[in-house]
């Protein structure tokens, strides 16, 4: 009689078959903690990769938490990133580990390397643990005032994350006002764009205050629009389209600032600019008609581009079908 078929497949040599492999990882990480021998970081990387791999396929590796944190006391950015990914995964669901994680990340938020400060702050704000939001206030405040633009960019987005976790904590810490100040004063266009993005969502959620809060900033941002990337330009234009100018002179000033956006290579920027021009001139019949004449050329150019793309796509699909049927 043939032996019965096995009901389960044997574990792959690259995957842990039980707690033994995790215990072995824990021991190896503990041996490397604090070591400054040549090649230590490379060895740590390989072990960290295994931990992340096991975590990804659903194996519980929370038992190596302390060792992961101890081994991440390094200036190696790759190790830091893997460690932040690991601790963030387990801290969200374990209050005890969350507190340990916050202490660890708060320390890294003061690191001399701005990249590590920014990564740590981003991870700290991404934990989403409601009962520990008070620990975010200090690092976020420092991040908004940091001398490095990357850290300020991360902090600007972090304010919005804090708002979603606890709006009252965010408002009580006066972060929306700090974002407004940073948006108007910062020299880095991406920092300004991140501030604007966060404020726009906060203002939308605080609908009763949104127009009053945004009113003065829109023309100012319109004058800086060339400094922003295309995505940020669309956000600025969306805000400007909701702005109500004080008089016709202001309308013409804003349209003059945005005139060249009608010839922009990006279709979204062109359409957002057209929206501004049409909204701004609704109460000015003659000018509104002139705007219609003005936007014909940009719209036709955009339509030609879209038609060309569609034709190219159709040609490719037809060729693909023909090759299959050949």
UniProtKB/TrEMBL annotation:
Q: Which UniProt keywords apply?
A: Membrane, Protein transport, Transport
Protein location = Endomembrane system
Which InterPro entries does the protein's record reference? AP_beta, ARM-like, ARM-type_fold, Clathrin/coatomer_adapt-like_N
Q: Name one GO biological process term.
A: intracellular protein transport
GO cellular component labels:
endomembrane system; membrane coat
Q: Does the keyword RNA-binding apply?
A: no
- Domain of life from the UniProt record: Eukaryota
Instruction: Report if keyword Protein transport is assigned.
Output: yes
According to the record, the residues making up region (Disordered) are 1-25
Membrane spanning residue stretches = none
Q: Which residues belong to any copy of the Clathrin/coatomer adaptor adaptin-like N-terminal domain? A: 39-303
Q: Where is the composition biased (Low complexity)?
A: 1-17
PANTHER family in UniProt? ADAPTOR COMPLEX SUBUNIT BETA FAMILY MEMBER
Per the record, the similarity remark reads:
Belongs to the adaptor complexes large subunit family.
| Name by which UniProt lists this protein | Beta-adaptin-like protein A
Q: To which species is this protein native?
A: Sesamum angustifolium
């Amino acid at each position: 009689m043939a032996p019965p078929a096995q009901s389960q497949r044997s574990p792959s040599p690259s995957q842990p078959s039980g707690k033994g492999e995790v215990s072995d990882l824990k021991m190896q990480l503990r041996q490397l903690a604090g070591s400054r021998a040549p090649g230590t970081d490379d060895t740590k990387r390989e072990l960290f990769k295994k931990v992340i791999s096991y975590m990804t396929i659903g194996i519980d590796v929370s038992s190596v938490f302390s060792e992961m944190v101890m081994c991440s006391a390094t200036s190696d950015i790759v190790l830091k990133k893997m460690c932040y990914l690991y601790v963030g995964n387990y801290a969200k669901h374990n209050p005890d580990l969350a507190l340990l994680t916050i202490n660890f990340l708060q320390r890294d938020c003061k690191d001399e390397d701005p990249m590590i400060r920014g990564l740590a702050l981003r991870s700290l704000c991404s934990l989403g643990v409601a009962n520990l939001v008070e620990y975010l206030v200090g690092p976020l405040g420092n991040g908004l005032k940091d001398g490095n633009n990357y850290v300020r960019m991360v902090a600007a987005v972090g304010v919005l994350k804090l708002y979603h976790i606890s709006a009252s904590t965010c408002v009580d810490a006066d972060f929306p006002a700090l974002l407004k100040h940073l948006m108007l004063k910062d020299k880095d266009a991406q920092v300004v764009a991140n501030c604007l993005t966060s404020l726009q969502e906060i203002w939308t959620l605080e609908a009763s205050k949104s127009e009053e809060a945004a009113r003065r900033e829109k023309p100012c941002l319109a004058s800086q629009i060339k400094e922003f990337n295309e995505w940020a330009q669309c956000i600025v234009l969306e805000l400007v389209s909701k702005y109500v100018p004080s008089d016709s002179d202001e309308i013409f000033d804003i349209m003059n600032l945005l005139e060249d956006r009608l010839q922009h290579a990006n279709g979204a920027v062109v359409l957002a600019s057209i929206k501004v021009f049409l909204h701004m001139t609704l109460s000015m019949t003659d000018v509104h008609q002139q705007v219609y004449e003005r936007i014909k050329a940009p719209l036709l150019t955009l339509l030609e581009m879209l038609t060309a793309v569609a034709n190219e796509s159709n040609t490719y699909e037809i060729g693909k079908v023909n090759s299959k049927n050949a």
